[in-house]
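anyone seen this seq b4? input:
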Amino acid sequence: MTTRITIAGREVGDDTPTYLIAEGGVNANGSLPIAIKLVHAAAESGADAIKWQKRSPALHARPGVMRESCAFPEGQLVTELQHREALELSATDYETVSTEAEAVGLDCFASAWDLPSVEFMAEFHPPAWKVASAGVTDLELLEATRDAARADGAAVIMSTGMSTLGQIDAAVDVLGKEQLALLHCVSSYPMEDDEANLSCIQTLRERFRVPVGWSGHERGVPLSTWAVARWRACIVERHITLDRAMRGSDHAASLEPKGFAQLVRDIRIGEAADGHGRKECGEREQAQIARLRRK
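predicted toks r here
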């Protein structure tokens, strides 16, 4: 059975080119100029989409917790609420990055982590909606995301880190399987190679009969290319950063532009090498037949 979703008019799923998402996340550190640079880095790397994270900081900050801000100015000791507020892009910022992404040929969307963030993102009518692993068990959030996506006929892509099959079952029951894709994910930052359990891509595909991909937090590119080559991940999502040494929670588990370009190159080479499956001799082999065979 061929299973596909549609994102911005493009089919994504079985027997289609891998859909490559550059996860900007919060790696802009609240800076619009950095966000714009990430958009262009993603486009130049060959990504299909740039994705962000949207939160309502007051709903996620822990009271009384102090931490060093990774937003600008870096290193300042602030409350966690101040830290999270500094990471958020404004509505004007989102409008700017969405317009910039469209101009360079990228789909642009975000994972909304709470109900106000769903309302925020709905104003931009994204071509796809992302459910982060942290939201798998938040059924109210899933319902709101489903309704917002259906209003525009958009796809929903849900990561499955930190989740049991039973929890994913319940989430899929809420979201429905139409226009749904799942991403196998391991929520450690950065993830060690032996934690990947990439065969779960097939487990999810067989259980849910929807397109399944890989949302990776590993260092480097080999596991992501193997997820496509061995397990036929139809979507690959990797964090992108301008500099892995930047201050912030996700930079170390991200790819710099050069690494993301290598990931895209390697996946596209493999796809081209798959060929058409017919055993036949091409022009270059025909010349060798004449030279090497005696009978």
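The first helix runs from residue 32 to 45. Residues 4-292 form a domain with the TIM Barrel fold (CATH 3.20.20.70). kinda curious what u guys think
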